[in-house]
């Protein structure tokens, strides 16, 4: 059996084969019959056909639900990609900007940058370039502006 038409054909040919084999096996001089066996065979084949139809229907319904779910997931994926593109700035401004400034004779370093919709402001206090001139024990003798670093970041 491959489909509904095949199940009807298979049942007809199985019944015909049973009838011919049963007629040949029952002696003519006895009152034996095969009517009850034939009805049992037809009942079993009908039950099997009904279960096969039910299984095919369930399989078809499952395939339709899977197809619907896949279409929904593809739609969600497209929406997520659009949102990601929008929020990462690939559709907005595509420019980056950065600048840094160090006032003369100070330990302060100011820097700012703009990248994909985010602004970063950084204030750093960096050790003096002349820290190496303090000598071997310069840091252990005391902490001063020559060997103290400080950073302050603001992300907007």
Overview of this protein structure:
With 156 residues, the protein is an alpha+beta fold. The protein has two domains: 4-26 and 33-87; 96-155. It has three helices and four strands; from the N terminus they run H-H-E-E-E-H-E. The protein has helices at residues 4-25, 35-87, 138-141; strands spanning 96-101, 108-115, 118-125, 150-155. It has a four-stranded antiparallel β-sheet with strand order 1-2-3-4, with no helix packed on it. Helix 1 packs antiparallel against helix 2 (35-87). The protein is rod-shaped. The two termini are 70 Å apart. The mean pLDDT is 78.
Query: Can you tell me the overall shape?
Result: rod-shaped
Helix fraction by DSSP (H/I, runs of at least 4): 40-55%
Radius of gyration: 44 Å
Low-confidence stretches: none
Structural class: alpha+beta
Q: Domain count, please report it.
A: 2
- Name the beta content range: 15-25%
Number of discrete helical segments: 3
Our measurement of the CA-to-CA distance between the termini, rounded to an integer number of angstroms, reads 70 Å
How would a crystallographer describe the biggest sheet?
4 strands, antiparallel
Strand numbers in spatial order across the main sheet: 1-2-3-4
Order of helices and strands: HHEEEHE
| Structure summary, number of beta strands | 4
Mean pLDDT: 78
Summarize the structure.
The protein has 156 residues and is an alpha+beta fold. Helices cover 51% and strands 18% of the residues. Strand 1 (96-101) and strand 2 form a beta hairpin.
What distinguishing features does this structure have?
156 residues; alpha+beta; 2 domains; four-stranded antiparallel beta sheet; 3 helices; 51% helix
């Amino acid at each position: 059996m491959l489909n509904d038409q095949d199940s009807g054909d298979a049942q007809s040919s199985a019944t015909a084969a049973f009838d011919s084999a049963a007629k040949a096996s029952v002696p003519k001089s006895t009152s034996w019959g095969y009517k009850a066996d034939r009805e049992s065979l037809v009942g079993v084949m009908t039950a099997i056909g009904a279960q096969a139809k039910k299984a095919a229907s369930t399989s078809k319904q499952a395939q339709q639900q899977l197809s619907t779910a896949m279409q929904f997931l593809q739609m969600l994926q497209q929406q997520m990609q659009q949102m990601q593109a929008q929020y990462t700035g690939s559709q907005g401004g595509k420019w980056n900007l950065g600048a840094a400034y160090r006032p003369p004779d100070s330990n302060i370093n100011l820097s700012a940058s703009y990248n994909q919709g985010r602004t970063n402001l950084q204030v750093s206090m960096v050790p003096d370039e002349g820290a190496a001139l303090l000598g071997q024990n310069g840091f252990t003798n005391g902490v001063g502006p020559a060997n103290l670093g400080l950073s302050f970041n603001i992300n907007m």
